[in-house]
Amino acid sequence: MNRRRVLDVAALPDSAFGHQGLVWWGTVGFMVIEGSMFVIAIIVYFYLRLKVEAWPPGLPDPDPTFGTANLIVVLISVAPAAAAKAAAEKFDLSRVRSWLAVLVAMGVVSVVLRAFEYPALNCRWDDNAYGSIVWVLISMHTIHVATDVVDSAVLLVMAFTQPLTRKRYVDLSENSLYWYFIVAWWVPIYLVIYFAPRWL
Amino acid sequence: MDHSGPENQRDERIEPQDRYELLPDATAESRLHQELARTWYVPKGVIGWFSVVDHRTIGKRYIVTAFSFFGFAGLLAALMRVQLAVPNNHFLGPDLYNQVFTTHGTMMMFLFAVPVMEAMGVYLVPLMVGARNIAFPRLNTFSYFVYLFGGIMLTATMLMNTAPDAGWFSYVPLAGPDFTPGKRSDFWAQLITFTEVSGLAVAVELVTTIFKTRAPGMSLNRMPLFVWAMLVASFMIIFSMPSVVTSSSILLLDRLVGTHFYNPAEGGDALLWQHLFWFFGHPEVYIIFVPALGMVSSIIAAFTQRPVFGYTALVLALVATGFIGFGLWVHHMFATGLPQLGLTYFTAASMVIAIPSGVQIFCWIASLWRGRPRFHAPLLFVVGFIAIFVLGGLSGVTLASVPFDLQVHDTYYVVAHFHYVLLGGAVFPLIGGIYFWFPKMTGRMMDDGLGRVNFWVLFFGFNITFFPMHILGFEGMPRRIYTYPAELGWGTLNLVSSLGAGLLAIGGLLLLVNVVRSYRFGAVATDNPWHADTLEWGTTSPPPVYNFLHLPVVEGRNALWDRSEDAPVVTGIRSDCREVLVTDVMDAEPSNKVSYPDPSIWPFLCAVVTSAFFIGSIFTPWALPVAILPLAITLIGWFWPKSEAADAPGVKKPLREVA
Fold first, then answer.
1. What is the pLDDT of residues B33-72, one digit of tens each?
2. Residue B571: which H helix or E strand, with range?
3. Using one digit for the tens of pLDDT, what is the confidence trace for B255-280?
4. ipTM score for this prediction
5. Distance from C-alpha of B216 to C-alpha of B218, rounded to nearest angstrom
6. Chain A with chain B: Cβ pairs closer than 8 A
7. Residue B303 C-alpha, separation from nearest chain A C-alpha, in angstroms
8. Chain B: residue nearest A29 by CA?
């Protein structure tokens, strides 16, 4: 036999957005892992709540002003993230550049606001177990925000200096996905930190 | 900006072409081989050694490293058995004994058992699913070095007489700042961070490899059982390890910066540690054990020359184990005074998990029964596994009962139980797996005669060591005591156990001798010496750097046995860059292609910085701000495109220039 059967895949695209691509799976994998850590930290918060009478124990309630401002900022930042994602999926470089720049700027604002949130917690990490978990919760989230701001900034620099390939547009698209994840987690963490002491 | 060039019109689903073509001549095939070998090269030299990104090299390093820690932790066990052989012994003092048993347990669990199973997955899964490399290859390199450095750190603390000494599960308040001043518990806590970071990274790589890079035709219901097992274990890692990372990190914070998570005086709680630890710790047993079940199925299929009986039941049992494994953690805490109703639930759940295990055992027995088993060394280890694991499972069921557990809690009965489950349930199949896959990994056969001797020595050594511990437990001998008075009458059984440990050590040595000798002088292996059914046996032994000359198309559940004369191969994958095929999750239909990155030194450098940060943070919280910049630099170096051609060879010209 001098012929063979082949499955010729030459025509398939050499990158894919969303769950058809590999980057999405890596991103979602780490979102699940980090999301589990947030869940566990929140469980620890309520577990510790059960151990004492007053909450916060012997400390004033946290002041939600800057936390609320931050919530508004990150919720609005979903719009540039979505616009950057849509632009990336259309390979529209100029829109990617502008929306990513807006996203980075809003991320920086969020980090700066976070610096004002820490004093407004009205507790220190070493006051008692309540202070410890509040600091850990907010710091876990801050590390995520700061990391993704740096990540987005690096992508922004690439978008201006490097010739972008299809693969890089996939990274840009998944970067926005990760930002959604960070924003989504701020909602429950914000409620726990600032309102669980008032409502419970 | 106009991007509507032909390059961008390809997002519509394009079907691959199933057709016939002229058989290429030998020169064309050899040219393809040369080009693939050049593209998928494994770098040489010192810098090359640290830059390797291919799964076979990293997988083998992982396996060798894990077995080295197994050897070291085994030596520590031997020291313990020497100490306990006779009453009133002072061979090891109490402090050193505490360090020895803590390091033994910690090393066996975190540096041997979990990593070695993942390591087998790193090596075997891409081959079994017909892929050219593991997904996220640079992350794989990073994970290996982080693991290695963590292991070196723990070994160094042991050699410097400053090892952790609060037990492998490091309970607070003993491990807290008040009762373990100094840095011993911090080394333990950071070892957890090291191993979990690397373990989680590998789990994500394996899930992605399994879901997205299977050969066309390998739908989920045709996936080899070992791959299913690695998939379940990877998911268990992803959902359980965050819990132990959190608990050990906040332990470190309690010790380093004065948080109060585990300090009852300031609203903290010591039992919180046990919940968080065992929410991970119990699934961890299955993370170790489930991949071993996959190995058992692979070996049984090959040595009975027929598909394993009850594929669907076996897959469902694996998945069920994965779920139920998360509902058992409180059975480690029966002696802590939790509410009765809760205990009842966990008793029931702990008994329920015996059901999927039983289903699997019966499926394997049925396979052996209906086949004509060839009792080579790998199958002997599997049969030994069945015997030992059934005993370990039975003692497990007894421990699920609260009143019984309260009697034997923290005695040698528990030590006997978990060694039966872990050594019998995981290490025996693993050694069988080493005998089984050694020819594929090295191109040489292991000595089967010596292998059979090896099995019997280990089997008797194991039972002589650990069976008496059941009785010692009934007689009330507690765990973690460095010696005992003669009047208690525990001397004879302890001596028997210690002699058995000597036999076990000889068994370990025989394995080492067989591996080293076979590696150098073993008979040359054919591609498929066992006539096994999975795809890794469809390529050369050892496999070429690109794994498969033509990516295979799978036509049945037993890929090689079901392959027809007319089986198609995949063409249209570029050989001048590291392009791989991406397929659908369910049916493995070709979807798109992606190019994997080249070797790079950056993941190693990133692992160095990460490790320095982890170790530094044992001593000062300033390690974090200091590490941020170098960490960012190494990560950017890792992800920064080297050049246009290397970054995305699938694109002839960057889109910007096309426009």
1. 999 999 999 999 999 999 999 999 999 999 999 999 999 9
2. strand B569-571
3. 999 999 999 999 999 999 999 999 99
4. 0.95
5. 6
6. 245
7. 32
8. B204
